[in-house]
Amino acid sequence: MVLISLGIVLSFGFARFTDKDFELVKSLDIFYSLFRELNLFYVDETDPQELIETGIESMLSSLDPYTTYIPESEMDDFNFMTTGKYGGIGSIIRQSGDYVIIVDPYEDSPSVKAGLRAGDKIISVDGISTKDLNISEVSEKLKGTPGTDVKLIIQKPGDNKNHTVKITREQIQIKNVSYAGLLDSNTGYIRLSNFMLGAGNEVKQAFQELKSEGIENLVLDLRNNPGGLLIEAVRVCNIFLDKGELIVSTKGKVKQWDNEHYTTLEAIDSEIPLIVLVNRGSASASEIVAGAMQDLDRAIILGQRTFGKGLVQTTRSLKYNTQLKVTTAKYYIPSGRCIQALDYSHRNEDGSVGYIPDSLISEFETRNGRKVYDGGGITPDMVDSMESLTPLSIQLYSQNIIFNYATHFVVNHPYNPEIKGFSITDEQYLNFIDYVKDQNFSYETNSEKALRDLIKKAKTEKYYEPAKNEFNQLKKKLQHDNEIDLERFKPEVMELINEEIIGRYYYQAGRLQLSLETDNQIKRALEIINNDSIYKNTLAYTK
Fold this sequence. Notes:
Blueprint (H helix, E strand, L loop, with lengths): L1 H11 L6 H23 L6 H14 L6 E3 L4 H9 L1 E4 L2 E6 L2 E7 L4 H4 L7 E5 L2 E2 L5 H8 L6 E7 L7 E6 L1 E4 L3 E8 L2 E6 L6 H14 L4 E5 L8 H9 L7 E7 L6 E4 L11 E5 L6 H11 L4 E4 L7 E7 L5 E10 L9 E2 L10 E2 L7 E3 L5 E3 L8 E2 L7 H8 L2 H12 L13 H13 L7 H15 L7 H11 L3 H7 L1 H26 L4 H10 L2 H8 L4
Parallel strand pairs: 11-12, 12-15, 15-16, 16-23
Antiparallel strand pairs: 1-18, 2-9, 3-4, 4-5, 5-6, 5-7, 7-8, 10-11, 13-14, 13-18, 17-18, 19-20, 21-22
């Protein structure tokens, strides 16, 4: 313990040893002493690695959710999150009973080349049964060095026979741009789903291809994009902004890490009318792009208020091939505002994290003098309410009813339908209703859940018995009927079925393309961008 303390002291240097440094050394000594005593005297055997990792995780959880410890065992997953690359067969898998099934194979992936399809059940991997294995365990067995083979035994939907499939692993590259195409004859559309390595280049290529088709407007969709690499956000902005524009600056405790990020190339097109779609799931790098476009009056932001993540993380290498991902700075978009919503540095008395109060929110101006604000995400120039799914649709989806029906549908319809305008018929929807009945499907509406909770509280407070008849009457009135609900919410349920089915033939890009046909926010974007006066007036000087 003395040697450890001395080593820490020497690492700081005697000349600059401060009271804060002493407190650090003292705390580390206490921690080491406590850990040693636990390891020696605790009544049961302890796992030193597990104890330390639990201590690390608890310590970091007191800061913010983005500061995390990455053990050696999770480095592959971490690298995948930043690069989008891994060695494997290229499929999303999901638990289904005792086994896992293929849910969403990537287009042109090794799994697709080997004939795997959504709904296929994985019985074994390289001779090892997957029964009762969880998703992460099966996933690890499917991953491996590109060029190596993996042998699977699978069962096809509607076929109980075992099929042996040999797949050669490849380097899988997840696309940042999940779909690009035309919304109408002169409006292009790019769906950017991530900001992993290469995002800027993918958007650039997609945009250039759309320009070659003669587009005059563009919709950039950042909805549900959780962000990623800051530099890729700058590169995306550079496609639409000329060289020398400040996009984002970072400021933290270590001053030499403070930085300003400017566009470094000439824009591909700095004039094309542009709408950026955002929602509550747009975070981090998505907010840098949306915020910079808003602050510089380069695009109209349409949708819902964004998540509000204004923090920057840096990875620091630790011993034994581990790393620390640590929040090192806040970022500021061109107007000078930081859009961080949650205040992790000033927690409530119960330890919870609160939003930055309205009293501390400041007003800023865009280049044209429009008012914008900090303290909680990007507020769109045009707010469009988000359509939420009904509890019926959520449960049909989460209980795999829609997924399994789509699997059943594709087995009986082995042809590729047209994406545009695709929909199951009314007769097929009636078949779906019969299918739901056969699955013994049940769910609880929000109203039923609220009443159940109210009855529970009334019983606890002894108010239930006097009002028992009224509760029972209300329960009858609120009780839903599956068949009636399936008819009442038919358009919404049909949309989900249609998208799931078309995804079986045309993968993620096809599913997205079909969803645009019924997307009300896309319709609103087209109305705005095709009306020159609305577009220009929205971005004009407002004083």
